[in-house]
Amino acid sequence: MKTNEQMYESIKSNLLDLMVGVMKNIKESEFIRLFEELFTTHFNVTKIEFFLYEENQFYPAASLVKENSRSSVGVVETLTSPMQSGTYSETDDPLDFADDTLMIRNEKREPVAMVLVKSTDEWHAFASSEFFKKFQLLLGRLIETIKGYQSLYKHSQNYQSLLEATKTFNSTMELGVIQSELVSTVSEKFESIQVELILSQEQLASSCPYRLFDYSNELPSTVEAFLSGELTLGKDAEHDAEILSAPVKGMQGTYGILQLSAPCHYIFSPMQKEFVRNISESAGHAIENTSLYDQSHRLIHELQLVNEVSKKLTERLTFEEMITYIYSRLKETFEPEEVAIVYFRDQEPPVLSKETTSYFLTQAGGRYLDYAENRVRKENGAVFIADLKNDDIEGFTPYRSLMIAPIVISEKIAGYTLLIHTEKYHFTFEDFKLVKAIISHSSLALSNSALREKLQDLANKNQMTGLYARGYLDRHMSSAFKKGIGGAFLLLDVDDFKQVNDQFGHAIGDSVLKQTADLLKSSITDHDIAGRWGGEEFAVYLPGATLVEGKQLAKQLLLKMPQLTKPSVTVSIGVSVWAPSTNQETYQQLFQNTDEALYSAKSGGKNRIIVSESVLAE
What we know:
Beta-Lactamase; alpha+beta; single chain; five-stranded mixed sheet; 19 strands; about 20% strand; five-stranded antiparallel sheet; rod-shaped; 16 helices
């Protein structure tokens, strides 16, 4: 029979073998078997329960006698992983067999573990010997050593996992890849725990499952983690779970929460908390870098677009040409389903540009135009709605995303641009800011174009009559000659106009000239040109007209002139026609021939038409 000293030396040897086995990463079941065998061999103990001391509490590590009779958590894993209290069933109390307790302490007299045994004679004999305290201290050292080794081992594993994840984070500029790597890495570390990613804003391109942060419905601990940027612990009473919330944050803000849901009474170890905190922050920095990268590229693209629009609009485009260009860029850049470009005119209903899509010509589309006009006039600025509600517009509203950008000319709202789409959130706030920038630059260009056209109109037209000036008529007809376009040309002279001025005064004379101009404008088409030739003389150019058509218009003017003027006056008219020609001398000859016909009409008695005998041709 062994003496107590021999037993102690043998136990010490066995414990050393156990520690070496741990260093070699033996399986947990093998460790448990060897630990059980030690007590069975030396003390003939058949019932034993092992507890570890963590965070001021004892937790059952595992049954060392009957496999799965207490808990599936093994000793080696339990030393560095969180324990679940309450793992016993109500009928499975270790105290129903234990009649002796072995408290295991470290060299600082701090508890590290506890063993409950069903005592035997061998156990009693050894427990009362001088070697028992040495045995207790040896167990304490063993457990402390194993815990230290396992801690280093776990730290090494965590560091390796964190390193691999960080490599992935830093090797991509895709948010979905970063988010997926974060969730998958943590899920692998916590196989029995649910891992969920909660994001602060929607990620349309993300392939990783997530949900949006909902301030009003989140757990208090989750909200606290989001607002404070610190890791928090909480309870989910509804699902009977322990919640660990880690902020996914960077230098500029928090982008979401990584939430771990464990069974009730689960305790997250400091090492686990550190790992979750580190990997969440690493992912947060990567997400921030990716977001900044995307923002910089988007900003560059936006600046390029605005610069391109500005450059294009500085070209000498007409007002309508600018509207057409703006429409095409809006369609290409923002992909709206419907676009309306509307401008206001004093004392007149709003005008739809020709580029406006046909939907706005319908009754339903008209409701959107009314809504847009009311909003832009009321708020005197741009409007962005990501999810338009049915009660916002009377009747059914299939279009949910809406952007309105006012067209401002001379500091006054001169119209607006409306973009709509059936999908809610189709337009982003970044889109809205870009639309405002484009329309703002366009407004200045449109203002300049409108002013330029107004100035050109002033230069081209006689201000008293509203007819084109002689210089414009000369240029237009000269161009027609060069292009080979024929036509008819009429020269008119108000008969006895000097007598009108002498008898009624110059104001009445000017009125007669205006009445004559109004008659000319009402008698020709949009393709024809009427101008004031000088004094009381007027000219009409009919592109492509025949002699018959020219004489017909002359007869009409001759008949209506005395009827529509007050005081009543008559006119004398000279008419010429010409075939296509590119000879500049022919163009000048046309004027001379027509003037001669007019002179013949006046010298022949006035109030008559004379057609030039020379029909010009090449």
